């Protein structure tokens, strides 16, 4: 009898899961496994964890949903609080496993875990499958070493010369090892989270494949919100201004190829426009960052970046703390940071502004900000996060948070996340420091600094108040 182990990682789904499908086809019985890796929740020297409580809770929902779906077709998911490096060799011995199936890794920490597991099991066959990106790594017209330095140089040849592979159907039956029994998701206490931490946050989305598929159906055919995506995507308030697929993509609760297929079907049956083009463009951009991150390796985590640029950062700890807490005195920045801390989510517009302000105004080492986003974001993706911060530090022009606050009509958004300013009903909410009565009657902090480069934007705001 051939017994296989399916090692789930960032592929927490039944649909379009090549590793799972091949394991079912080639084995007589299966053991299904997931490790809640302890290193993910370790304390960093910066004073916070590598991954925080929102990410933990989102992962918990996602894994529990995976377990439910596996059990519905005969599987049992063993969930461990120990590293895969420790647990997998035990399972191999316990169940007589001869073959392991898993999604292929690409980031350095995960590759190191994979290498350690393989090293301990010389007599076990390993089968790894690429499932991270829209385009398969073997189908793009580049090797990792020749990935272009610009997204356009990657995107155009790839879209002309490659096609996304067809998705795998979700399996309908699993023959589980007779002695395999599902286990519970580890308690937050195993990772030294407190009950208070758990109570003070609530992930912006509920994790899991079921929620991901529901969201895909809702955003496309049920609501037809996709038609307006190109023009609404830069907002910040609510659920429906953007797809909200990113958190599900990050943990593999949904496949990028399934999203692609849904969009193509939408174009045939509902409407093909700039919005449908744009959402596929963003899936391709996500691919590009993955492949470029693989090319640049650990350089994307270094202060000088892969461009080896020296910047004299001030790294003022008090300013860093105010930014983290959403107490900079700049409402547009603070609203986004407070939402991030509470829910683990922030809009694309917020990420651009908070990063730009952090690097170019506060003059703090960009890697500190990237690490803080890593601890908080439920849609954390190693390449997307660190490459976006790298670009903000070295490649993208400055983004003015005062101008952006007015441009994107952030009044209601600010009022929601900065309750000290919630009673302000006009555009004073963007620049409260200009009004003595607001300074005296609210507990909202004064700005760390007001910059001359904001003058034009503040004058435009003042002009709106004249009428």
Oligomeric status = single chain
Give the beta-strand count: 5
Order of helices and strands: EHEHEHEHEHHHHHHHHHHHHHHHH
Rg, please?
Answer: 23 Å
Give the name of the CATH superfamily of the largest domain.
DNA Cyclobutane Dipyrimidine Photolyase, subunit A, domain 3
What fraction of the residues are assigned to beta strands by DSSP?
5-15%
Silhouette: globular
- Low-pLDDT runs: none
Query: Gap between N and C termini, in Å?
Result: 81 Å
Mean pLDDT: 97
Largest sheet: 5 strands, parallel
Number of domains: 3
- In the CATH hierarchy, what is the architecture of the largest domain at level 2? Orthogonal Bundle
Query: Order of strands across the biggest sheet?
Result: 3-2-1-4-5
Helix content: 40-55%
CATH class of the largest domain equals Mainly Alpha
Structural class: mainly alpha
Please give a handful of descriptors for the protein shown.
single chain; 467 residues; mainly alpha; Rossmann fold; Serine Threonine Protein Phosphatase 5, Tetratricopeptide repeat; DNA Cyclobutane Dipyrimidine Photolyase, subunit A, domain 3; 3 domains; 5-stranded parallel β-sheet; 20 helices; 47% helix
